[in-house]
Design a protein that fits this description.
Layout lengths: L14 H32 L6 H28 L7 H33 L8 H4 L1 H31 L7 E6 L2 E6 L5 E5 L2 E5 L5 E3 L3 H8 L4 E5 L2 E4 L3 E6 L5 E5 L4 E4 L4 H5 L2
Antiparallel strand pairs: 1-2, 3-4, 3-7, 4-5, 6-7, 8-9, 9-10
Helix pairs in contact: 1-2, 2-3, 2-5, 3-5
Length: 274
């Protein structure tokens, strides 16, 4: 390609994958918080400053709820400021600043939730009490932040391999056309384009309609080197001769046979990644 490849580039958006990750972390966090509640109650009782079970539950639940609401933002930042690749010092600085901001929002929001919960039962909790001991709270929050980013990066790095592992990319695609069946060698397919409830397989000659969603085809053909360049278009990477940028951030994909396809800036990095 004419443009240099971006090594270790950030992964493309994956809403389903991120949702699965959030569900997983929510499950793990729930177990941790339950044990934390029991530990807080027991530790307070041992020191002679016992508290009611509901108080410890409010403390831990408020903290967990705020972290779960902040997690999607952490994932977006982790994907955009991907720690692999060049510019590590700058990226670490960005994540440090983000961890401070996350911790500040965490203690403020959790304090407000605890104040509201105590007020509902006619008791009192200082809404700003957590901020008074913020350095202690930050030490805990930064561990949570680093853990989320590290596990998420591992998840996004391994997820394509896990998706592709059950079955290798086919050498031949079986395309049904009414009672007829076409067996299309994958090596002949240059790009795939959405067409309503179908996709159109573009080869050297005329296109061929195949009843499948573009997302399903992307998952099926990704191990064979196909990459999404537009919300409605996949292209075989080794069929690309050049990528030409446009002022808008979108780009033009020039194929080896001379044909040209429009690409969206949202899918620029996956195309240029190694």
């Amino acid at each position: 390609m004419e443009e240099s490849s971006i090594r270790s580039s950030p992964p493309p958006p994956d809403a389903r994958g991120d949702l699965l990750f959030i569900i997983f972390t929510a499950a793990v966090l729930s177990v941790v918080l339950i044990f934390n509640v029991m530990n807080v109650v027991e530790d307070r009782a041992r020191t002679g400053h016992g508290i009611a079970f509901w108080e410890a539950a409010v403390w831990e639940a408020s903290s967990g709820i705020v972290l779960l609401f902040l997690e999607p933002l952490i994932l977006i930042l982790a994907r955009r400021v991907w720690l692999f690749g060049p510019g590590l010092a700058r990226k670490l600085t960005i994540h440090f600043v983000a961890s401070v901001a996350v911790s500040f929002v965490h203690v403020m929001a959790a304090g407000a939730m605890r104040w509201a919960a105590y007020a509902a039962v006619g008791s009192h909790y200082g809404a700003f009490s957590l901020i008074k001991d913020w350095p202690y709270e930050y030490r805990k929050d930064v561990v949570v932040y680093v853990s989320i980013v590290a596990v998420y990066m591992a998840w996004r790095s391994l997820r394509p391999q896990l998706q592709a592992s059950p079955e290798a990319a086919p050498d031949v695609l079986e395309v049904r056309d009414g009672a007829r069946r076409h067996f299309v060698p994958l090596s002949e397919v240059i790009w795939v384009e959405a067409a309503g409830n179908y996709v159109e397989l573009h080869r050297g000659g005329a296109g061929l309609l195949h009843r499948a969603s573009l997302s399903a085809m992307e998952r099926r053909l990704q191990p064979a080197g196909f990459v999404r360049i537009h919300r409605s278009r996949l292209v075989r990477r080794d069929a690309v001769a050049a990528v030409v940028s446009r002022p808008s951030g979108d780009y033009l994909v020039r194929l080896r046979d001379g044909r040209e396809l429009s690409g969206s800036r949202r899918y620029r990095r996956p195309l240029l990644a190694d």
